[in-house]
Design goal:
The complex is a heterotrimer of chains A (291), B (335) and C (335).
Chain A: H1 2-32, H2 39-55, H3 60-83, H4 92-114, E1 130-132, E2 135-137, H5 139-161, H6 163-173, H7 175-180, H8 185-211, H9 218-231, H10 237-254, H11 262-276
Antiparallel strand pairs in A: 1-2
Helix pairs in contact in A: 1-5, 1-6, 1-8, 1-9, 1-10, 2-3, 2-4, 2-8, 2-9, 3-8, 5-6, 5-8, 6-8, 9-10, 9-11, 10-11
Chain B: H1 3-22, H2 25-50, H3 58-75, H4 80-102, H5 107-127, H6 129-132, H7 153-177, H8 179-189, H9 191-196, H10 201-227, H11 237-250, H12 256-279, H13 285-302, H14 306-314, H15 318-323
Chain C: H1 2-8, E1 12-13, E2 19-20, H2 33-46, E3 52-53, H3 58-71, E4 75-77, E5 94-96, H4 101-114, E6 119-125, H5 128-140, E7 147-154, H6 162-169, E8 175-179, H7 184-195, E9 201-202, H8 210-216, E10 224-227, H9 243-257, H10 263-282, H11 286-295, E11 299-300, E12 305-306, E13 322-327, E14 330-333
Parallel strand pairs in C: 3-4, 4-5, 6-7, 6-8, 8-9
Antiparallel strand pairs in C: 1-2, 10-13, 11-12, 13-14
Helix pairs in contact in C: 2-3, 4-5, 7-8, 10-11
The chains are: A mainly alpha (291), B mainly alpha (335), C alpha/beta (335).
């Protein structure tokens, strides 16, 4: 029993990170129609910048804010240099290649700047693990889960309750109509990329105390986050978060069956969902809407 | 195949045949790598440029060809002359089987599905230790050598690889000009229109996917024959990406783009390996990663027809190319 | 650092009694197996080196073993796997300097036996390093009366291994043996600590650098692992034959790089001086260098005291391994 709880706790911790990455994917995809392969690199940038600044002696909260700002800036740069000239002109395939190119370039620049050695970030609130009905829960895990919940709430609020959000949703629903009512899709593209950079970096900052920051951490996290987004239907923020959590739980519970094949599981699920339920598995429920 | 293509293939064949007379063993190994990657990249050019489908998992077909060929030769003691075609056939068969469901997906979904398949394949290589010998891999794969009185393993490998590469090149050049090629081009341009014309688009897409899988498998089998050591490590996502970069850099609008892209990347990697540490002490692979990434994005944005398109334009042949496009004009543009 | 040191002494004194300058050619294989092969061919064919040092990873070394064997160029690898030099009959031209994982595993198991551990929980990284260790465990465990009650794996870039450890917690094991390198080795140690796993934690020689401790933080304390003597050089008795070499190496490394040396750098250092020693006798002739390496006896290196022979291309024995315990963030000899 306590083992089952432990797997669940591990799954939720893993899944929360996937959820944050998935949220970034969905934000960009819903608004621009592009899958941003560099999403995982934003997570890496967040973790690496925070780690560097903390090592340079900066207090953690300030380092975290700067890291998120840095990755948001990277997102904006990616939009201006890569996506703005391509959106509406290139096929999805062309867009994929541009973001893959960007992801590779970002990873390479991180390698040049910081080398291959991993870096640590101190836990936000140090101390021994908490005991939740027999399951050991790292204090940082609590931070991760809480952060995911808050970010989801903020993103939801932004999209549903603000003018910018309405403009973003207009782009997501119908580009031509959005233009007719005076929304500039390019500006909205910029907003969504900046937002996704920030969301990804937040994931990186809260994750780094558990798993260390290294230049190559983005690739796998990005892919797993994408799987989470697809499970959730690729166009809905709550769906993306639920999809990420579900994937984390699946992996945690599959590990005792075969820890070697665990990594294949996410991608088998990905293909199965895309073929059998292309609208995501929560189709028709809370994850219905675009964003 | 146009008359120009026939001449070009002939000239290339002659150059390769004479290369061992002037080139060092190391230069030959660059040509061999070009041939190996070129075979696989041509398959991607056909898939992306002609049928406008994408694969981010082609390393899996390459790896499958390599493993089937290598394992049959090593563990079953079958002659490499049989295991190399077997590797290609195995990859072809798997491409056919997985292609049927997966090609129902479009755009991003297809890209991610193929990427997923690639990762699943690598996990299986790592985990099915009894069959594949796991992450440590295996070596001493028996090699096929041409029955020619030639000295030096590199020359023999060069002729074998390029025999296959030239055959693949010629077949592909013929294919894009034949009626199947025209059908494919129609699908690339508009699926709806071609369905109306009575073309079964799904069948045609599957055929190109299967062919490109076979090419990758053939390249992999030849790789196993050349390197004689296999482990799961090389056949991951990064390699799939490299193949795609080769196709894009070379040019998706022409079969020649596959060869040009493979050659460019192999030579670039080798040049950078020596000169980068001189320009920027302490750096090596890092800057290369940045360059590849920027080159890929810039090429797609600015020159979607790749180096071949650039060369054609430079030679003032842009007009004739446009008059009879080898494949779709700008395959990455929204249709 | 090494090239400068050697040429400052005037180079290698050849068998002809003259001093020869040495040029060391470096290439980065980017830890890619397919790249490794090209690099090896380049060194052999283009740079015409008489001897190759490196690579430092088991996978990349195994990938080029066939190439160097065929070219008859001695290869002195700085990688762990015993498969690099075994069976010696098939590895005539291949040597290696790090302690083989068989040797390390024997020491770890002997320690487990002495401590009364009989039920061992195993968790390793899913690559050639972990795989090779796992194969050695399965081969040697029965000899030491140890049963493997859990056998788990994780990926080199995994971020959380708590699920595997949860399964291990329920397995009834009396010790945890981890086989990985940082950062994953640190992550799993931290996860075990956070989970409150009450098992003594053992690692491998893969964590012989400060990085492991920096990353794992307080959870590293109490970890015991078999490794070369370098890490505990200052606490060795003066009678130890390696003491002077190790203390000097540590000081030289600190001057050159401003940080503490790692056991991995030591492997390359040893490989370099073994090559130099052989070349002093043999000159630039590959075959003679190979023969001379086999004749090297009682060479006191950083890794251990090497006694090569026709049947032992690693040349190390139990004297090259000691058990180290991490205590208060530094290395102490484990009793």
């Amino acid at each position: 029993m306590s083992d089952l709880l432990q797997y669940a706790a591990t799954g939720i911790a893993l899944g929360s990170i996937y959820a944050l990455v998935a949220l970034g994917f969905v934000t960009v995809f819903a608004v621009t129609g592009a899958i941003n392969f560099a999403q995982g690199e934003f997570v890496m940038l967040g973790a690496m910048i925070a780690a560097q600044l903390v090592h340079a002696g900066m207090p953690l909260p300030l380092a975290a804010v700067l890291a998120v700002a840095g990755a948001a800036l990277a997102g904006a740069a990616l939009h201006e240099l890569g996506l703005r000239p391509a959106l509406g002109r290139l096929s999805p395939l062309g867009l994929i290649m541009i973001t893959i190119g960007a992801a590779t370039a970002i990873r390479g620049m991180a390698l040049i700047a910081w080398g291959t050695d991993p870096f640590t970030v101190p836990a936000f609130t140090p101390g021994p693990s908490l005991d939740l009905a027999g399951a050991a829960v790292n204090r940082q895990t609590v931070w991760i889960v809480a952060t995911t919940a808050i970010v989801l709430a903020l993103v939801w609020f932004l999209f549903q309750r603000t003018t910018t959000g309405r403009a973003l949703r207009a782009c997501a629903a119908d580009l031509v109509a959005a233009r007719l009512v005076g929304v500039d899709p390019r500006r909205m593209g910029l907003v969504s990329l900046t937002l996704s950079g920030a969301v990804g970096a937040i994931g990186g900052v809260v994750l780094a105390p558990i798993t260390f920051a290294s230049y190559d951490m983005g690739l796998m996290l990005g892919l797993k986050g994408f799987v989470g987004a697809v499970i959730g239907g690729l166009a809905s923020a709550p769906g993306a978060v639920a999809g990420g959590l579900l994937l984390g739980l699946l992996e945690a519970f599959a590990t005792p069956i075969s820890s070697g094949y665990k990594d294949a599981l996410a991608f088998v699920v990905l293909i199965a969902v895309m073929l059998l339920r292309p609208g995501g598995i929560f189709r028709g429920s809370f994850a219905r809407g675009r964003i | 195949m146009t008359r120009g293509d026939v001449t070009a293939v002939g000239v290339l064949a002659a150059l390769i045949a004479l290369a061992p007379l002037v080139a060092s063993g190391y230069q030959l190994s660059i040509l061999i790598s070009t041939g190996l990657y070129g075979i696989a990249t041509i398959g991607l050019v056909l898939l992306v440029g002609l049928a406008r489908q994408v694969s981010l998992g082609h390393a899996a077909f390459f790896g499958l060809g390599a493993y089937v060929s290598g394992l049959l030769a090593t563990r079953a003691g079958i002659s490499p002359w049989l295991t190399i075609p077997a590797g290609a056939l195995a990859a072809m068969a798997v491409a056919y089987v997985v292609g049927r469901p997966v090609l129902r997906l479009h755009g991003h979904y297809l890209a991610m599905a193929t990427l997923g398949l690639g990762i699943v394949f690598q996990v299986v290589l790592n985990e099915w230790v009894d069959l594949t010998r796991g992450p440590s891999g295996f070596g001493s794969i028996p090699t096929a050598t041409l029955p020619l009185p030639i000295a030096g393993g590199e020359t023999a490998s060069l002729y074998l690889v390029w025999l296959a590469a030239l055959a693949v090149l010629a077949l592909s050049l013929w294919l894009v000009r034949s009626s199947p090629g025209r059908a494919l081009r129609a699908i690339g341009d508009s699926e709806v229109a071609s369905e109306l014309l009575g073309l079964h688009t799904a069948d045609w897409k599957l055929r190109v996917f299967t062919l490109s899988g076979a090419y990758a498998g053939l390249a992999g089998a030849l790789y196993a024959n050349y390197v004689t050591f296999l482990s799961p490590q090389p056949f991951g996502f990064i390699f799939s990406l490299e193949l795609l970069v080769m196709a894009v850099v070379g040019g998706l609008a022409s079969v020649w783009g596959g060869m040009v892209g493979a050659f460019t990347l192999v030579v670039l990697t080798e040049t950078l390996r020596r000169s980068l540490p001189e320009w920027l002490p302490g750096s090596s692979g890092e800057l290369e990663l940045v360059l590849f990434g920027v080159a890929l994005a810039a090429m797609v944005l600015l020159r979607p027809t790749g180096l071949v398109g650039l060369a054609a334009a430079g030679l003032g042949r842009a007009r004739s190319l446009r008059a009879a496009p080898a494949t779709a004009e700008e395959p990455l543009h929204a249709g | 650092m090494l090239e400068a040191e050697l040429n400052a002494k005037g180079g290698i004194k050849g068998p002809d009694g003259l001093m020869h300058k040495v040029e060391v050619v470096f290439y980065d294989n980017q830890s890619q197996e397919s790249q490794s092969v090209l690099v090896a061919k380049r060194l052999i064919e283009e740079d015409k080196v008489p001897v190759i040092i490196g690579p430092s990873q088991s996978g990349t070394t195994l990938a080029i073993v066939d190439t160097t064997q065929k070219a008859q160029i001695p290869l002195i690898s700085a990688a762990a796997s015993f498969k690099i030099v075994e069976p010696v009959a098939d590895r005539k031209w291949v040597f290696k300097t790090p302690q083989s994982d068989s040797l390390i595993m024997e020491n770890a198991l002997a320690y487990h036996k002495k401590a009364g551990h009989t039920k061992l929980a195993w968790i390793s990284v899913n690559n050639a390093f972990g795989d090779s260790g796992r194969a050695e465990l399965q081969r040697l465990a029965p000899k030491y009366g140890v049963t493997v009650v859990a056998d788990e794996r994780f990926g080199a870039t995994d971020t959380d291994m708590t699920a595997q450890l949860t399964k291990i917690r329920a397995s009834g094991a009396d010790c945890l043996q981890i086989w990985a390198i940082p950062p994953a080795a640190s992550t799993v140690t931290k996860n075990a600590f956070d989970l409150g796993l009450k098992l003594p934690v053992f690692q491998s020689h893969g964590i012989g650098n400060q990085t492991f401790i920096d990353l794992a933080g307080p959870s590293a304390n109490g970890v015991i692992f078999p490794v070369g003597k370098l890490l505990v050089a200052s606490s060795l008795p003066d009678s130890d034959p390696q003491k002077t070499v190790l203390v000097d190496y540590t000081a030289a490394y600190k001057t050159a790089y401003g940080k503490l040396p790692t056991t991995f750098g030591g492997h390359a250092w040893d490989a370099f001086w073994i090559a130099v020693k052989a070349m002093e006798k043999a000159g630039p002739d590959s075959a003679k260098i190979r023969d001379e390496i086999e004749k090297i006896r009682n060479f006191v290196g950083v890794t251990g005291v090497f006694d090569f022979s026709a049947t032992d291309h690693n040349g190390l024995d139990n004297r090259a391994v000691t058990m180290v315990k991490i205590d208060g963030g530094t290395w102490k000899p484990a009793e």
